[in-house]
Amino acid sequence: MGRFGIVVGGGPAPGINGVIGAAATAALQRGHEVVGIMDGFKWLMEGPDVAPDHVRMLSLQDVARLHEQGGSVLHTARANPTKDPAALATVVASLDKLGIDRLVTIGGDDTAFSAKRVADVSEGRIQVVHVPKTIDNDLPLPGGIPTFGYETARQKASEVVEAIHEDCRTTNRWFVLILMGRHAGHLALGAGRAAGASVSLIREEYPPGKIRLDDVVRVIEGAIVKGLAAGDPAGVAVVAEGVAELIDPGDFEMLDNVALDEHGHIRLAELPFGKVVIDALKDSLGKRGLKVALGTKDVGYELRCATPSAFDREYTRDLGVGAVTCLERGVTGALITRQESAIVPIPFDELMDEKTGRTRVRMVDIDSDSFRAALSLQQRVTAEDLADATRLGQIAAAAKLSPDEARARYAPIR
What we know:
Layout: E1 3-8, H1 16-29, E2 33-37, E3 55-57, H2 60-63, H3 85-97, E4 102-107, H4 109-122, E5 127-132, H5 150-171, E6 174-179, H6 186-195, E7 199-201, H7 213-229, E8 235-240, H8 243-246, H9 273-286, E9 294-299, H10 301-304, H11 310-328, E10 334-339, E11 342-347, H12 369-376, H13 383-387, H14 389-399, H15 403-409
Helix pairs in contact: 1-11, 3-4, 5-6, 7-9, 7-14, 14-15
């Protein structure tokens, strides 16, 4: 009989409880003990004398219907032991004190990296596998396989976009919706596509380096005036929050006390990015006497603990059982994936970015047929619009610009 530990790190995502429940059930039915570790790595980092007070022994009764619930019964935290070698050693010592010889971690890229380092530092005493979780869908799984939680979040987000879009059509206005996705734009693009948003803007579209706020504003403004030219005064723009990180910080100087994290990055959750964008839109349009009713909404926190969809319930239960099975077979230092109908462990080393030494990030492939199809269905000003004298004239008139000014202002990003 072994003792399995389960720990959840990073932000919530629909389906966490499905992994916990399935992993615990599989281990318990095979004669093992299961320790649920509370609050991610937080208490493990406090040391062997503290950690035992922040765990719970799980029973079959405890986890019987967990897969139906959003959230995490073990909670979660962003405590990161990899920032300090001493903290990492303390985590391993705490796991040793708890008698855990096999560990299932559940989380995103930071938790995956922490899992790899725990496996390394324990030198084989603790087998570790990681179950990838993030609504951002940005972990490097093969063949377009989604991370669990993404499909539920995308469904919920698309329902919000649809409802706001209908409100805009009813009230003749535009909304700018900011969706979660610091590193990659999968969620913003996926929800926008499913809901038929007028435009979905992601960071992958922009070239490397810093951009200006106006590089975001002019794309949305172009969609607005293109709609006005066609007699449609309403629409929704979906923007991935990560776009804000690309913008020259000087463009946020009008804001007081912009919060930065320990890496010097803007705290996106605390940045009123949507308001910044619509204020800039109002200013740009207002200078030419155009009045457009504008609103904004952040969409994200209402997605993370949503009740998981049938897809994510089934998916996470497969992953939970797969994690236990792999550990019993001696697998360690691996990410657990489901490829078609098979559970396939991928060694952590294959997921690492050689330049950063951290887990690779899966970005939206902007050269794919899928992305090109998404662009073709949006209400953006296109190169074809600008090359057609009639269409250009209509857009320019709606924007109260000359054709040459409109061509320069609304030139596509790429």
